[in-house]
Amino acid sequence: MSQHELSEIDLLKAEIKRLRKSLSELTPPLAVILKRRGFRIYKKEPSDDLLIPEKKFIDDYYDMLKRYSFRLFLRDVIKHQPLFTSQHVTGYATKEVTGEYINYLVRIGLVAPENNAYRLKKCPIKSFGETLEWFVAEIFKREFASEAVWGVKMKRPGIGGDYDLFAKIDGAILYMEVKSSPPKQVYQKEISAFLDRVYDLMPEIAIFFMDTELRMKDKMVPMFEDELKIRFSEPPKVNRIEKELFEIQTERPRVFIINAKDSIINNIEKVMVRYFRTIIRNHG
Known about the structure:
This protein has helices at residues 3-26, 30-36, 58-65, 68-79, 95-107, 129-144, 188-201, 220-231, 264-283, and strands at 41-43, 83-84, 111-114, 117-120, 147-154, 161-169, 172-179, 205-210, 238-242, 245-248, 254-259. It has 284 residues and is α+β, with helices and mostly antiparallel strands. It folds into two domains: 3-47 and 128-283, no CATH class; 55-120, Winged helix-like DNA-binding domain superfamily/Winged helix DNA-binding domain (Arc Repressor Mutant, subunit A, Orthogonal Bundle), CATH 1.10.10.10. It has an eight-stranded mixed beta sheet, with helices on both faces. The protein has a three-stranded antiparallel beta sheet with strand order 2-4-3, covered by helices on one side. Strand 3 and strand 4 (117-120) form a beta hairpin. The relative contact order is 0.11.
């Protein structure tokens, strides 16, 4: 592909983003769309366990979080808080890269040198979960010009509970479960709770996302298949779209199971492309 063709593609992507932003401004806010379905947000976007720098560093920090190795590094920093050494956090990158990551955190003010170690300035932080939810919400805002909220709590009889992320996609609701834990730390009850929320809300798009590059077919997909057998006399199939992206074969809601392999942004984009192409194919 020529440089000219690449430039044309970039221009088209920018125009799509601009049009999507304009459309978003013409449709009701996300909170209103949720309210119409009987869902009211009473809390959102908690900051107690949010690990982000001050505003002037946010754009660069967002770009750093696109790196899987940096996200794994941050998990280790949180795991070993308040004090950690480079040896504690070198499990997922080379010694040189880890050193660069540590220096970066010092530069943006998240950690400070202390004797022969480093101290996480904000602690205790329970987990990487809130920071990951914030990051994924930023992806929807920045890459897809979508309104997004994370860390949502609903007051609702029966199901209720915590919803990791909502995004408004051209007037449609996208609900996303955001898991920072590896597959071995995810249990059947979490799959059940996710599907409870999905079939209660009935969003146009639902995504179960795990921030891992490990295979989803080994554990996650079988757990979904087992849960679907409990809920349906004729359970829908869980089909592979490509690589580690899967879809539950139901017309609505469209439910996807994805991970971070090849990048979170690319995988979310593939989900959205598949969703919109199906709409076009079905409705002309």
